[in-house]
Each structure stands twice: as C-alpha cells, then as structure tokens.
Design a protein that fits this description.
Strand order of the largest sheet: 2-1-3-4-6-5-10
Number of domains: 2
CATH superfamily of the largest domain: Thiamin diphosphate (ThDP)-binding fold, Pyr/PP domains
Largest sheet: 7 strands, mixed
Number of helices: 13
CATH class of the largest domain: Alpha Beta
CATH architecture of the largest domain: 3-Layer(aba) Sandwich
Distance between the termini: 39 Å
Number of strands: 12
CATH topology of the largest domain: Rossmann fold
Shape: globular
Structural class: alpha/beta
Order of helices and strands: HEHEHEHHEHEHEHEEHEEHEHEHH
Helix content: 25-40%
C-alpha cells in the first residue's frame, strides 16, 4: 500500500507540474509512514516540502493554492489530527465551487492514515470518515488494496473538487490476514496484491465485488473488506462482499443490485456505531430494497466508546463478530 501511494504521487507529479505535495515530515523524511519517500529528492523542495505542525494552516494554505490553480496533495499525519482544520475543510474547501458559482474550484487531496492497528490509542487510531461524508461538496475515498490505492489516488488528484483520501494503517505494510483478530506472522502468506504499473485510474464512485455470493450482501471498506471475506469463509455463509472503495460518491447501483439478489445485508466498519457511515448505508438499503429484504439489516462496528489503547483488537470488528452477524441474518 505504501509503495502504491508513493507511486501515485510520483506519476501525478511527473505528469503535471501543478501537483505539489506537503505536510508534516513529508519532505526530507518522506512521511511518518514513508508514503512520500524520495519525492523531495526527485522533484525539489518547491514541490514536496515540510509544513509546520499546524493542520489548519496546512489545509488553509492548500485551499489557497488550489484556488490559484495548483493541485496540492497534503498529508495529515494521522486522521485524528484533522480536527483543527475541520472548519477550513467544511467552510472553505467544500463550498468554494458553489459559493463562487464555479468561478473557483478546489482541486485538493487530503490524505489521512486512518483506523487502528499500531496501538496508537485515542489520538492516533480514530476512523472519522462519517464526519466528511456528511459534508456536501466533499468526496471521500478509502481503498483496501494497492491497485485501488494507486488508481483512486490518481483519480483524486485529477478531480477538480476536494477529495478526502483515507488510508487504513493496518494495510500499510500488509500483507493482511483477515482471519485473525490479532496480528500474527501468518500475515506474510496473505498478500494484498501487486502495485500496478502505469497511470491507470480507478474511477471514484464505483464499488467492487470482492467475493461473489447469493445468500447475504456484506458492505465494507478498507480493512474490513478482508475481515468480511474471512468471516464468510469461516462460517460457510455464501456471502457477497462489496468493497465500497468510494464512500462519497457512493455506488448505490451496485449495492441495490446485490441486496436485491441476496435479500439480506450486513454492514461492517471499524468506526464507532452511532451515526457511523453504516447508518447511512442501512437507510439506503431500507429505502431501495425494502421489499426484497428477508431479514433486518445488521451492523457490525467499533464500540461507542473512546478509542481503547491496550484493547484495540477487542474494539475492532473481527471475523468472529462478523461471522455471528452472518449467521444471525441467515436465521431471521
């Protein structure tokens, strides 16, 4: 995943000199997760540079650059750090096209490592995607594999409007084995996939079927795609796993087609339950698939608690909890 994200930067910067990359430690050091390593050396300090520890300033500066005609790609070191910049994102970036009657656009990408997996506790492990899907004017993306990470980031950089690009930390260094609720050495036998060559774009707003099935639809994104696949394999339930990839815009057509086929739906995400993105998915399934449903829709999510530090692997929805939901929805 790290290599894929780094390559997407490289491809975009080579193709368009308007693409600039900056954020905390992204220049000389190459980012805390090394996603921008080598870019400053290759493209110079005017196109890849370090910023002060000031998220509001980073985002505000990037909005000005975007309005001026540049294509900034900024990194917020952890998604938990974005809150001081939230007003800039909501009140300025998201609204610039509409409040200017399209005289200005904001071709801005905000990359953020999200979720747990590094025992980072409450200030390094949150999953705040629902805070951004609620904001009109923003696009929100979360890839689950290297091919999508590269293709979706290239699509985000070429998009004329602001894109929030979430990167699941548990997948950075892959491989990832969704069968386990805790990190194990057997991850090494479960590769995430190769980094594709070239400049292929994965379009925003298109979901992908990761596992064909006929009994129940599982809607997931990011790390939870692998957890959902593992739960289906362990329970033997013939589940169809949909990787949303793009949360906003959302591929409603793919969701509806799958749920109408299976008649059942389980939604999985790592973020807290109440007002999470799963609630929106649940409402959409209810509105569009009510007469096809054979059982109530079930959500499997993180707990409604401040993010635990030592107990983060109990906080994550694992294959055990997802498997229970699959069996329950088949019984109803």
């Amino acid at each position: 995943m790290i290599e894929a994200i780094r390559e997407a930067h490289d491809v975009a910067m080579a193709a368009d000199e308007r693409v600039v990359v900056f954020g905390e430690d992204v220049g000389f050091f190459g980012g805390v997760f090394r996603c921008t390593a080598g870019l400053q050396e290759k493209y110079g300090k005017s196109r890849c540079f370090d910023a002060p520890i000031n998220e509001s300033g980073i985002v505000g500066t990037a909005i000005g650059m975007a309005a001026y005609g540049l294509k900034p790609v900024i990194e917020i070191q952890f998604a938990d750090y974005v809150y001081p910049a939230y007003d800039q994102i909501v009140s300025e970036a998201a609204r610039l096209r509409h409040r200017s009657n399209a005289d200005f656009t904001c071709p801005l990408v905000i990359r953020m490592p999200t979720g747990g997996g590094i025992f980072g506790g409450q200030t390094h492990s949150q999953s705040p995607e629902a805070l951004f899907t609620h904001v009109s004017g923003l696009k929100v993306v979360m890839p689950s594999n290297p091919r999508d990470a590269k293709g979706l980031l290239l699509a985000a950089i070429s998009d004329p409007d602001p894109v929030i690009f979430f990167e699941p930390k548990r997948l950075y260094n892959g491989p990832f084995d969704g069968h386990h609720d805790k990190p194990v050495e057997s991850w090494k036998s479960h590769p995430l996939g190769e980094v594709p060559d070239g400049d292929g774009i994965v379009p925003l707003g298109k979901a992908a079927i990761r596992r064909e099935g006929a009994e129940v639809t599982v809607l997931a994104y990011g790390t939870m795609v692998f957890v959902a696949e593992a739960a289906a394999e362990e329970t033997g339930v013939d589940a169809e796993v949909i990787d949303l990839r793009s949360l906003m815009p959302l591929d409603l057509e793919a969701i509806v087609a799958s749920v109408q086929k299976t008649g059942r739906c389980v939604i999985v995400h790592e973020a807290t339950r109440t007002s999470g993105f799963g609630a929106e998915l649940m409402a959409l399934v209810q509105e569009h698939c009510f007469y096809h449903l054979e059982a109530p829709v079930i959500r499997v999510t993180g707990w409604d608690t401040p993010y635990p530090h030592a107990q983060e692997w109990e906080y994550f929805p694992g294959p055990g909890r997802v498997g229970e939901a699959l069996k329950k929805v088949m019984e109803d």
